[in-house]
Write a structure and sequence with these properties.
Protein name: Putative 2-aminoethylphosphonate transport system permease protein PhnU
Pfam families: BPD_transp_1
CATH superfamily: MetI-like
Helix content: over 70%
Keywords: Cell inner membrane, Cell membrane, Membrane, Transmembrane, Transmembrane helix, Transport
Structural class: mainly alpha
CATH architecture: Orthogonal Bundle
Largest sheet: none
Shape: globular
Radius of gyration: 22 Å
GO biological process, one term: transmembrane transport
Transmembrane segments: 65-87, 99-122, 128-152, 232-250
């Protein structure tokens, strides 16, 4: 009985999660300009419009990709020395730096966005696309910091002792032992930051200053003209990217450990 109830609960949970996705995916197939469900005259014209023919959406998608890939790369590059210092030294200074690196992610996005907006305006850089990259890298720095730290903690100390016994320098040990064992965790942190940056709206709203639009900003701007099927195409893209990235992390990364599972119970 208990097992049956568990299956029913899981089925209902899956249905609740799937229904909005089904509605959005169906609405994206509307042939006209009105978002309806079930779709009228279903075809892929809105997908062609979003990815190829409509300049405003193509430009927004390009900006989103630039900001997402740039900020995720920068976040990993900033997180690595912080995580390594925290793991190797464990000093108060390294803990403080790691705490500061994680702080933006803990703040309400609107508070962080307003603060960044004032700072970039004061520096005369508000509205530059590199500002969006740096802002998102700072906001999502905590993600690769956590995943890389978990990867460093998972390294078997016996491997480090063996490398030291064989005369390996710190640089050789880092290149041949530490880096290969933490690579899946670095990639996982990169993709976590990339997905969240791709979907983020609030901070980008304050730092872009209407000088450019990402897909999320373009959806917001287009709401003045009402709901259109092209917005649903953007939503389908967000869902697809998220599912693809998290599936890849689950397949090739150590997802149970990243989710906090206790490996000692296996």
């Amino acid at each position: 009985m208990r097992r049956t109830m568990g299956h029913i609960f899981m089925a209902l949970s899956g249905l609740v999660l799937a229904l909005p996705i089904i509605v959005v995916a169906g609405a994206s197939l509307n042939g006209g300009r009105t978002m309806l469900f079930p779709p009228e005259d279903p075809n892929f014209a809105r997908f062609v419009e979003f990815f190829i023919t409509e300049t405003i959406w193509v430009r927004a998608l390009r900006n989103s990709l630039i900001v997402a890939f740039g900020s995720a790369t920068l976040a990993v590059l900033l997180a690595w020395p912080l995580a390594y210092l925290l793991w190797a030294k464990g000093s108060k200074a390294s803990k403080m730096l790691a705490g500061l690196g994680s702080l933006p992610f803990a703040l309400p996005p609107i508070v962080f966005g307003v603060g960044l907006g004032f700072m970039w305006a004061f520096m005369g850089s508000l509205g530059a696309i590199w500002v969006g990259i740096v802002s998102h890298a700072t906001l999502f720095l905590a993600l690769p910091l956590v995943t890389i730290s978990i990867g460093l903690q998972s390294i078997d100390r016996a491997h480090l002792d063996a490398a030291a016994t064989m005369g390996a320098t710190e640089a050789v040990t880092f290149r041949t032992v530490i880096l290969p064992q933490t690579l899946p965790y670095s990639i996982s942190g990169f993709f976590f930051a990339l997905v969240l940056s791709f979907n983020e709206f609030i901070v980008m709203f304050f730092v872009s200053a209407s000088a450019y639009a990402t897909v999320t900003l373009q959806i917001f701007n287009s709401l003045r003209n009402g709901y259109t099927p092209t917005m649903a195409v953007a939503a389908v893209l967000f869902i697809t990217v998220s599912i693809a990235v998290f599936s890849a992390v689950a397949r090739w990364g150590d997802l149970p450990r990243l989710m906090g599972a206790d490996q000692s119970r296996n």
